């Protein structure tokens, strides 16, 4: 299986230099502001939640953890090529996640059917939960506001995040991946404001192997 990092690098190499520079500036500003610095770390307890899945059925963290460990992955939306690539990699790893007694749960603020469309397109093998108005992401320190420059650039190519998220606040989640054991304790945590980088599925799978079901 091709490492996720290599697949993401392909996207980076195809990126217009102007967009690359724009993203570099946005990421630098987020780092300087300490964005996501307070997000969950290894050893922390998971923030309890109940969210609708992409088909409208409510799912609680308590019910998920009653079945075993959870891989929890926050992504920006199906409109993001980095996210589509990441979710495709997780689709390929879905059978191994299940074999290890865990479940894969993706979380996005994308509304209006976008989450379900991506789940069906990728045959994801897990749940996608819809974090309306980024409420869970905000509580976990994973929501940031899009800069004015990035917002203008997105609107210039017809990418209206207000439409994707059903809100004109222009918040966006920081991509993050966690492994949470059945006791609700975070055993792996990776949150990076540079959305061009994501946790490697194989590293997550190894944590699941180490902790067992």
From TrEMBL:
Transmembrane helix in keyword set: no
Organism from which the protein derives: Skermanella cutis
CDD domains in alphabetical order: PRX_like2 (cd02970)
PROSITE patterns for the chain: THIOREDOXIN_2
The protein's name in its UniProt record: AhpC/TSA family protein
Residue ranges of every copy of the Thioredoxin domain listed in the record: 40-213
UniProt entry keywords in alphabetical sequence: Plasmid
InterPro entries in alphabetical order: AhpC/TSA, Thioredoxin-like_sf, Thioredoxin_domain
Signal peptide extent: none
Coiled coil: none
């Amino acid at each position: 299986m091709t490492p996720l990092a290599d697949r993401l690098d392909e996207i980076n190499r195809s990126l217009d230099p102007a967009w690359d520079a724009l993203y570099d500036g946005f990421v630098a500003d987020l780092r300087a502001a300490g964005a996501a610095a307070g997000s969950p770390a290894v050893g922390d307890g998971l923030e309890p939640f109940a969210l609708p899945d992409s088909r409208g059925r409510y799912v609680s963290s308590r019910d998920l953890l009653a079945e075993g460990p959870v891989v929890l992955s926050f992504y920006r939306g199906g409109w993001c090529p980095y996210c589509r690539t990441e979710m495709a990699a997780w689709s390929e790893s879905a059978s191994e996640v299940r074999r290890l007694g865990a479940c894969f749960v993706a979380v996005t603020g994308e509304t209006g059917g976008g989450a379900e469309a991506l789940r069906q397109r990728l045959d994801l093998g897990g749940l996608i939960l819809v974090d309306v108005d980024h409420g869970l992401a905000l509580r976990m320190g994973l929501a940031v506001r899009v800069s004015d420059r990035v917002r203008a650039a997105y609107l210039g190519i017809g990418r209206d995040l207000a439409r994707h998220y059903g809100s004109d606040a222009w918040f966006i989640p920081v991509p993050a991946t966690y492994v949470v054991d059945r006791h609700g304790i975070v055993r792996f945590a990776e949150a990076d404001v540079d959305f061009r980088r994501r946790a490697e599925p194989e590293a997550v799978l190894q944590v699941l192997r180490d902790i067992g079901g």
